[in-house]
Amino acid sequence: GLLPRLQISAPAGRILSSSMSLSQNIPSCLWKLGRLNHVAIAVPDLGQAQSLYRDVLGAQVSEAVALPEHGVYTVFVELGNTKLELLHPLGEKSPILSFLQKNKTGGMHHICIEVDDIKAAMTELKKKQIRILSEEPKIGAHGKPVIFLHPKDCLGVLVELEQA
């Protein structure tokens, strides 16, 4: 049948050598990616979104916090292994306002991954032609330095890196 053919289709030595050469080609970094901190979701109605996660789904939901320097209101939804960050526009220059003008019902805005050394990450990513959307880290919603990587350099995803 099919199973015996699958088992002999690739010699074990070839699999081992190709995986070894793959890991040997990965350069060592001065910084390391950590855990997924949160997935951010832009929402047109913050109260409705809080109610969905708190009252319908039963999650622990924070109060809204204004972050004027980022042009957003944030609410965090605790999920045990990570968080959701609900984002709502604050002010006329809010990046979330322009996002919601294109996506009327809201949607995923960015992912946030922790790093152990944000300055080293910035230096190395710039060398690798990854655009960073600010010259220096800003203080994010958790009170820690954050940077954002250009989505066109990250497979269409806006990536936030946060100092762990």
UniProtKB/TrEMBL annotation:
GO terms for cellular component: mitochondrion. The keyword Isomerase applies. Gene3D superfamilies: 2,3-Dihydroxybiphenyl 1,2-Dioxygenase, domain 1. It catalyses: (R)-methylmalonyl-CoA = (S)-methylmalonyl-CoA. GO terms for biological process: L-methylmalonyl-CoA metabolic process. Its EC number is 5.1.99.1. One of its GO terms (molecular function) is methylmalonyl-CoA epimerase activity. Keywords: Cobalt, Isomerase, Metal-binding. Residues 35-164 form the VOC domain. Methylmalonyl-CoA epimerase involved in propionyl-CoA metabolism. This is Methylmalonyl-CoA epimerase, mitochondrial.
